[in-house]
Write a structure and sequence with these properties.
- By secondary structure, the protein is of the alpha/beta class.
- The strands form two sheets. Strands 3-2-1-7-8-9 form a six-stranded parallel beta sheet, with helices on both faces.
- It has two domains: 1-35 and 84-134 and 183-265, 3-Layer(aba) Sandwich (Rossmann fold), CATH 3.40.50; 39-82 and 135-177, SIR2/SIRT2 'Small Domain' (2-Layer Sandwich), CATH 3.30.1600.10.
- The chain has ten helices and nine strands.
- α6 (86-98) packs across α7, α6 runs parallel beside α10 (250-257) and α8 packs parallel to α9.
- The chain is 35% helix and 15% strand.
- Bound molecules: ligand BJW and zinc ion.
Length: 265
């Protein structure tokens, strides 16, 4: 795993960023790794003895909602204690300062949103707000009625009876995230694919690029004549398609890629 950015590759990537009119940024768990939020795959992705594929499903929640809420409660605490790192901040600045940038994330941790608010200061954070393909860990939705609302309170997962319930009908609520086998929000998905098709560059940061349909976005850019730049310490299925793969941690590579080297923060 390369800790130091290859300068020649970095220069090529910087040129691609500079030349691109429209940029789609696709991020995954790896961009938040340096904020202290665990990724899904790989050794450190395991929670107790479970693989995420066993917990992030509607079947797991139907079978054992207490276990699934315990996992989400644990993750919420980790995320609540975390803040955006230099990669989130650099992307927010890129989106706010140059325009033509759309951030699409698979993450449910809201760290792009926090970065957008932080960087915007008094400005409108809108252009730096991410399209959240897999939902948000700080929202719940009811398993019985249509209620869906912000929910940040600690979760008491000691028993089925103490799990959070719907403020409208009193039934069990679930995290408002997209699990395996569930459809992504149609409008968000259409918007993301539209952005991918019109982007000159797809900048892919910190995703293993194995979960569909998100992993297809960079291919759509490529099929429409755009390029791919990847930032990931490890190779992924996209590496072979990328114009440049920066084998470095996001918090180190992204700020340099977007021209933030030397800037404070
Ligand atoms: C660093 C770093 C550092 C480390 N800096 N980098 C087509 C083909 C095959 C399968 C399918 C298909 N279509 C659908 C499927 C099934 C399935 C799927 O894709 N399965 C694959 C695993 C094979 N997809 C679905 O089920 C999707 N639904 C769907 O398609 O529905 C169809 C439908 C239509 C109509 C009706 C009904 C259904 C839904 C997928 C939902 C995924 N959900 C999760 C959980 C979200 C909630 C939560 O957070 O709990 O999303 S799973 C999990 O994986 C999470 C992530 O967003 C997602 C992607 O993971 P990510 O971000 O890539 O993380 P990691 O851990 O995998 O990778 C981290 C990377 O960072 C690594 O590469 C590291 O090297 C790197 N890294 N440190 C930069 N410092
Ligand atoms: Zn309800």
């Amino acid at each position: 795993m390369g800790e130091i950015v290859d300068e020649r590759e970095l220069e090529r990537a910087r040129r691609l960023v500079g030349e691109a009119g429209r940029i789609l940024v696709l991020t995954g768990a790896g961009i938040s790794a340096e904020s202290g939020v665990p990724t899904f795959r790989g050794e450190e992705g395991l929670w107790r003895r479970y693989r995420p594929e066993e917990l992030a499903t509607p079947e797991a929640f139907a079978r054992d909602p207490r276990l699934v809420w315990e996992w989400y409660g644990w993750r919420r605490e980790r995320i609540a204690a975390a803040g955006p790192n230099p990669a989130h901040l650099a992307l927010a600045r890129l989106a706010l300062d140059r325009g033509g940038v759309r951030i699409v994330t698979q993450n449910v941790d809201d760290l792009h949103g926090v970065a957008a608010a932080e960087v915007a200061g008094g400005r409108d954070p809108g252009p730096a707000l991410p399209l959240e393909l897999h939902g948000s860990i700080f929202r719940v939705r009811c398993t019985a009625c249509a209620e869906r609302y912000a929910h940040r309170e600690p979760v008491d997962a000691r028993s089925r009876e103490t799990l959070p319930t719907c403020r409208h009908c009193g039934e069990l609520v679930r995290p408002d995230v997209v699990w395996f086998g569930e459809a992504l929000d149609e409008r968000l998905l259409a918007e993301a694919f539209g952005e991918a098709a019109t982007a000159d560059l797809c900048l892919v940061v910190g995703t293993s690029a194995v979960v569909q349909p998100a992993a297809s976005l960079p291919r759509v850019t490529l099929d429409n004549g755009g390029r791919i730049v990847e930032v990931n310490p490890e190779p992924t299925p996209l590496s072979a398609l990328a114009e440049v793969s920066l084998r470095a941690p996001a918090a180190e590579a992204v700020p340099r890629l977007t021209g933030e080297a030397g800037r404070a923060g």
